[in-house]
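Researcher: Quick test of sequence recovery. Tokens follow.
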């Protein structure tokens, strides 16, 4: 098939971006979207120009590195699919496809389709972990986890940190991402000891990074390649609310109230 691609080119973070049109001929239906871009890049390189920069790693839908807007939709037209797992058979011969990077203040464009998503790393560093003493690894089955807790924990753990939820949100909110990380650990006994500290620290860092507020439009859930549910945002709100109340009660008690 033949395609026309309008691709956002931006040489650096400070440079002004612009669209460039490329004709992609001989595109196979079996190619993934990234493989199609690889072929386009080979032609660009052959002409002595700079190839289109885009992030990728596993190309199996598990690492969270890939992601950009395809015709205005984060990760493109297929629900529950990363761009690396999106195949060209879902497009038509003659299609005109617009490709842009995530658009969010907290994810600045570094080059072409590559954005800086280190804000997510800093949110994880603020509390998205379980503190453990050094020493021998505890037996995996030492603490039984009921299925009713294990299931939502595993659903939340499916988040790959791609940032599509932020890109799709009109407020560039990171609530779906943070809620998945907080819920994953809050559902497990190993994560409960630090649940209040974690919820407070991660939400504070999210705000400090400049992400917007959640107004529950559901655009994040609609584009999430791992189909993370909005229910986790409700869970995050409960976790955060309880942590604030507990903190207030502790401060009150300390003040002799
Ligand atoms: S919640 Fe979904 S869209 Fe957001 S970072 Fe995680 S996997 Fe990506
Ligand atoms: S390259 Fe790893 S999820 Fe797409």
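Model:
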């Amino acid at each position: 098939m033949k395609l026309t691609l309008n691709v956002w080119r931006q040489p650096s973070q400070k440079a002004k971006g612009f669209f460039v049109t490329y004709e992609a001929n001989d595109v196979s239906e079996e190619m993934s979207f990234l493989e199609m871009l690889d072929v386009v890049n080979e032609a660009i390189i052959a002409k002595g120009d700079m190839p289109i920069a885009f992030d990728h790693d596993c190309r199996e839908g598990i690492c969270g590195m890939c992601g950009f807007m395809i015709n205005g939709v984060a990760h493109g037209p297929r629900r529950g699919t990363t761009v690396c797992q999106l195949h060209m058979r879902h497009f038509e011969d003659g299609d005109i496809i617009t490709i842009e990077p995530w658009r969010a203040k907290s994810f600045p464009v570094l080059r072409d389709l590559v954005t800086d998503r280190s804000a997510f790393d800093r949110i994880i560093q603020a509390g998205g972990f379980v503190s453990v003493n050094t020493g021998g690894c505890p037996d995996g089955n030492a603490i039984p986890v009921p299925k009713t807790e294990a299931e939502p924990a595993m659903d939340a753990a499916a988040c790959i940190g791609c940032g599509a939820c932020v890109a799709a949100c009109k407020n560039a909110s990171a609530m779906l991402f943070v809620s998945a990380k907080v819920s994953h650990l809050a559902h497990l006994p190993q994560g409960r000891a630090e649940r209040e500290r974690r919820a407070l620290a991660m939400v504070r860092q999210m705000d400090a990074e400049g992400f917007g507020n959640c107004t529950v439009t559901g655009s994040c859930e609609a584009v999430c390649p791992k189909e993370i549910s909005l229910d986790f945002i409700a869970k995050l709100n409960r976790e955060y609310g309880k942590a604030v109340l507990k903190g207030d009660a502790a401060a009150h008690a300390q003040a002799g109230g």
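Residues 159-165, 176-177, 180, 224-226, 228 surround iron/sulfur cluster (ligand 1) (CB under 6 Å).
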